[in-house]
C-alpha cells in the first residue's frame, strides 16, 4: 500500500511558492525542472515513433507474407482492420486504408533495397541487365 505524502510536501496546481523559498531561487528551480521535462519528452517521443514505425513495418511484412503464402485476396485487409480495431480501440493507424499504405511502403522499400543490391552486383560485374527480365 502506497503512503500518501504529507500535506506539507504535496504540490497544488497554481500554488504560490511557500514563504520560506526565495522567489528568484524558486523561478530558477522551476525553470530547470521544465527544461528537464521538455528535454526528456523529445527522446521519449522519438522512441515511441521508432517503435510504431517498426510495428507498422512488421505488420505490413507479416500481412504480405501471409497473403502470398495462403493466396489471400485484398479483402483480408478489411477484416484485419476490423478485428485489430476491436482488439485495440485506443490505437490509431489500424484502418484498412492505413494497413494498405503500410503494405505499399513495405513493398516500395523492399523493391528499393532489392534494386540497390542488384545495381551493386551489376557494378561489380556479378549480374547482367538481362536478369532484370525474368522472361529472358
Automatic annotation (TrEMBL):
<dbReference type="InterPro" id="IPR041527">
    <property type="entry name" value="YhcG_N"/>
</dbReference>
<protein>
    <submittedName>
        <fullName>DUF1016 family protein</fullName>
    </submittedName>
</protein>
<dbReference type="InterPro" id="IPR053148">
    <property type="entry name" value="PD-DEXK-like_domain"/>
</dbReference>
<dbReference type="Pfam" id="PF17761">
    <property type="entry name" value="DUF1016_N"/>
</dbReference>
<feature type="domain" description="YhcG N-terminal">
    <location>
        <begin position="33"/>
        <end position="110"/>
    </location>
</feature>
Amino acid at each position: 500500500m502506497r503512503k500518501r505524502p504529507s500535506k506539507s510536501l504535496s504540490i497544488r496546481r497554481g500554488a504560490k511558492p511557500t514563504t520560506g523559498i526565495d522567489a528568484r531561487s524558486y523561478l530558477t528551480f522551476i525553470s530547470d525542472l521544465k527544461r528537464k521535462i521538455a528535454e526528456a519528452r523529445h527522446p521519449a517521443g522519438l522512441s515511441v515513433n521508432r517503435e510504431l514505425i517498426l510495428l507498422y513495418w512488421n505488420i505490413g511484412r507479416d500481412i504480405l507474407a501471409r497473403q502470398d503464402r495462403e493466396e489471400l485476396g485484398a479483402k483480408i485487409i478489411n477484416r484485419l482492420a476490423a478485428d485489430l480495431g476491436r482488439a485495440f480501440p485506443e490505437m490509431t493507424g489500424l484502418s484498412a486504408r492505413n494497413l494498405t499504405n503500410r503494405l505499399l511502403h513495405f513493398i516500395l522499400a523492399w523493391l528499393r533495397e532489392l534494386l540497390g543490391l542488384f545495381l551493386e552486383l551489376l557494378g561489380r560485374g556479378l549480374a547482367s541487365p538481362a536478369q532484370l527480365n525474368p522472361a529472358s
